[in-house]
C-alpha cells in the first residue's frame, strides 16, 4: 500500500488506520468495480526498482508507466474501470488492499508478469 510523505506520530497512525478501515469497508460492502492503473514488467527486481523511483519522487506513477510498462495499450498505465472477472484474480485481490489514490508497495505477480497497481476509485 502507498504511503503519504511527511507527517508522523499520531497523525500518521490515524491516517493509516483510516485507510485500513476504508479498505475493510470496501471489502465488506463488496466492491463491484475498480478504476485502476498499472505498470507491468517481467522481473520482480525491475518492479521493485520502479516502486523506489516513484517513492523517491524522481518520477510520478503515470510517467513511470509510460517509461517502463510492457503494456503500452493503456495511456499512463490506465486500464479504466474493471470488474473482477476482467482481471487476473491475484491482481484483483492485491488491488482490494490498496487505498484509493495509492499504489502497491510490493510487486504483484500474475501470469502476465509483475505489476505495480494504483487504485483510482472503487464502486
From TrEMBL:
GO terms for biological process: rRNA processing. It is an enzyme of class 5 (isomerase). It comes from the Eukaryota. GO terms for molecular function: DNA binding; peptidyl-prolyl cis-trans isomerase activity. InterPro entries: PIN4, PPIase_dom_sf, PPIase_PpiC. Keywords: Isomerase, Rotamase. Residues 1-24 are annotated as: Disordered. The keyword Cytoplasm does not apply. Pfam families: Rotamase. It catalyses: [protein]-peptidylproline (omega=180) = [protein]-peptidylproline (omega=0). Residues 31-121 form the PpiC domain. SUPFAM superfamilies: FKBP-like. Its EC number is 5.2.1.8. Belongs to the PpiC/parvulin rotamase family. PIN4 subfamily. This is Peptidyl-prolyl cis-trans isomerase. It comes from Hemiselmis andersenii (Cryptophyte alga).
Amino acid at each position: 500500500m502507498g504511503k503519504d510523505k511527511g507527517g508522523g506520530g499520531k497523525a500518521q497512525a490515524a491516517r493509516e488506520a483510516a485507510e485500513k478501515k476504508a479498505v475493510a469497508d470496501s471489502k465488506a460492502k463488496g466492491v463491484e468495480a475498480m478504476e485502476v492503473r498499472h505498470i507491468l514488467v517481467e522481473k520482480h527486481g525491475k518492479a521493485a526498482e520502479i516502486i523506489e523511483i516513484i517513492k523517491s519522487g524522481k518520477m510520478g506513477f503515470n510517467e513511470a508507466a509510460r517509461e517502463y510498462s510492457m503494456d503500452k495499450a493503456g495511456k499512463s498505465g490506465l486500464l479504466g474501470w474493471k470488474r473482477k472477472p476482467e482481471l487476473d484474480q491475484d491482481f484483483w485481490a492485491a488491488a482490494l488492499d490498496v487505498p484509493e489514490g495509492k499504489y502497491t508497495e510490493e510487486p504483484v505477480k500474475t501470469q502476465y508478469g509483475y505489476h505495480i497497481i494504483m487504485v483510482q476509485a472503487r464502486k
